[in-house]
Input
Amino acid sequence: MARTCLRIKAKRTPKFAVRQHNRCDRCGRSRAFYRRFRLCRICLRSFALKGQIPGMTKASW
Output
């Protein structure tokens, strides 16, 4: 779980746009972040398995 202060800091509008830091909207994780979904890999996988992301299915081959 991400530290609360870093989650709050990431939600604020930075002084300069370059200083923006991407974090998962659900859990606040900063690594393995997917910009398209604004989620980390763990949350993305859980949402996909529940069927909450339209068009995304689990790969099987």
About this structure: Residues 15 and 36 are 24 Å apart (CA to CA). The chain has one domain: 4-50.
